[in-house]
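Supplementary notes for students who missed Thursday's class. We covered one full example, reproduced here. Read the sequence, then the structure, then the short commentary at the end.
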Amino acid sequence: MILYSISGLLRRFLVELGLAGLMLFESIILAFRRPFKFDYIVKQMEFVGVKSLPVVFLTGTFTGMVLALQTYYGFRKFGAEGLIGVTVALSMTRELGPVLTGLMVAGRAGSAMAAEIGTMRVTEQIDALVVMALNPIKYLVVPRVVASFFMLPILTIISDFLGILGGYLIAVKLLDVNEGAFLNRIYKYLEFQDIYVGLIKAACFGVIFAIVSCYKGFYTRGGAEGVGRSTTQAVVVSCVTILVADYVLTSLLF
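Structure (token representation):
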């Protein structure tokens, strides 16, 4: 009985993984085919990027502040307070910036994507698009994937900057760490690779949460209850997949 349940879960997981992979593949192909839905893409870029600025602002700033505060108490024991700046900078650009931005935007924008597309599915609006000879993947999924792919790196840059700024305010202005040591260590040890690898991660996370959210919404069943279930699953699966992908990308890129 247990083996039967496990095999059923594994089979369902493989089916959903295959369907999501096919949706991603079709989205990539359709993104380069006419007609190009630039107005839809810009609308989604505003939704994913501009409207996520407040949560990214708070997340990035307070992450840098907490990181500076914690590293100060640890480094003070060894007289290494001058390393706080580069520690905050490397942590934000390599890991915390892209990962936290991906998680927060997945929770805010990904849930909305799943709910919107799921509502369209249960109210038969997607079927109406098919009847009108409009490809629902091209119309609904591609703009969201493209927008997320481009906006997540931009949001990550903002998060990185705010995190380093928050760390500077706490370390230099509050804890009296030497300003020159704080900034010079960042300039000396922070490399361009640390930044662009983080941006590559962010772009991948954007595609991941957009595809997962669109997939969960696209295959919604069960009316209003199904929409709620799909929205919850989209956020949970997106966040878990982002964390797994972060490990894989870190292993490959560093």
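Commentary. DSSP finds nine helices and no strands in the chain. The radius of gyration is 21 Å. If anything here is unclear, bring it to office hours.
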